[in-house]
Backbone:
């Protein structure tokens, strides 16, 4: 089998849909169907069966798809190890990043990185910090995570950003006791949610009168910016262009600012790769 055949089997195994797989592989559906038939003839067994839900793997197909993925992964690791011995920085940089970092902080960093190292391919996964931690145990080169996770490998503190109450009207936290607008929250990992809950209960006897929960932090921010309610947002999500809102930093009972830490996680083996070393060095330059 050719390398392209392994890619076809791997993508079909992920998508289980001929149209989506064809789009990812940049081929027509008829061409992909014909290629799949040739592969099945070569193996002398069907790999998929069609159903109302799409395409289901046969037992033999599951084993062959697993073999294809393993072969592609071994090839990529071999290529990366060869690249590590050469002066040119290229290969694939696998990043797993907390969603909020991927949305507000990472783009500027990546812009500089890809301009400096144009031969490097970027593989980016975003999600909650708990999901990023899981990804790092499986395949990530670098994880950027919120909070302070338990990690046995190399771990570097990147920055701490302060939490702010954001609203178009409120200028003092004392006004919250009698404020009628809803508290707008975005879904986040449990540690962030607990920090907000602890701060609230340490300062106010009652819970917010009304609450709106949204999926994305940017939705939360835009609702606050447009005067629908107030929100508690980390400063990494706020910019100098956000001039039409009041930003009140949160403090604990001792008067210290309440912050949210961001950490970089990696593996000893990953740090031997030139594309990984280059990314970490870039962050050290910008620190």
Residues:
């Amino acid at each position: 089998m050719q390398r392209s055949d392994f890619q076809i089997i791997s993508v079909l195994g992920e998508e289980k849909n001929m149209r989506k797989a064809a789009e990812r592989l940049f081929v027509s559906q008829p061409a992909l169907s014909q290629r799949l038939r040739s592969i099945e003839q070569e193996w002398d067994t069907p790999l998929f069966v069609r159903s109302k839900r799409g395409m289901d793997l046969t037992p033999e197909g599951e084993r062959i798809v697993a073999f294809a993925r393993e072969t592609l992964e071994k090839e990529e690791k071999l290529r990366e190890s060869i690249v590590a011995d050469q002066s040119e920085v290229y290969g694939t940089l696998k990043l797993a990043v907390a969603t909020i970092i991927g949305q507000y902080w990472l783009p500027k960093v990546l812009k500089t990185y890809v301009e400096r190292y144009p031969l490097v391919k970027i593989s980016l996964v975003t999600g909650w910090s708990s999901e990023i931690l899981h990804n790092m145990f499986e395949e990530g080169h670098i994880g950027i995570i919120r909070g302070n996770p338990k990690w046995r490998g190399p771990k570097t503190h990147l920055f701490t950003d302060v939490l702010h109450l954001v609203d178009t009207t409120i200028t003092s936290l004392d006004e919250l006791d009698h404020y009628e607008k809803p508290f707008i929250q975005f879904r986040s990992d449990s540690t962030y949610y607990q920090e907000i809950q602890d701060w609230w209960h340490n300062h106010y006897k009652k819970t917010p009168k009304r609450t709106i929960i949204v999926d994305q932090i940017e939705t939360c921010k835009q609702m606050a910016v447009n005067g629908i309610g107030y929100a508690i947002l980390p400063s990494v999500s706020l910019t100098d262009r956000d001039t039409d809102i009041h930003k009140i930093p949160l403090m604990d009972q001792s008067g210290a600012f309440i912050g949210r830490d961001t950490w970089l996680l990696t593996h000893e083996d990953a740090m031997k790769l030139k594309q990984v070393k280059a990314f970490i060095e870039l962050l050290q330059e910008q620190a």
Observations:
- Residues 109 and 283 are 8 Å apart (CA to CA).
- The chain has a mean pLDDT of 90.
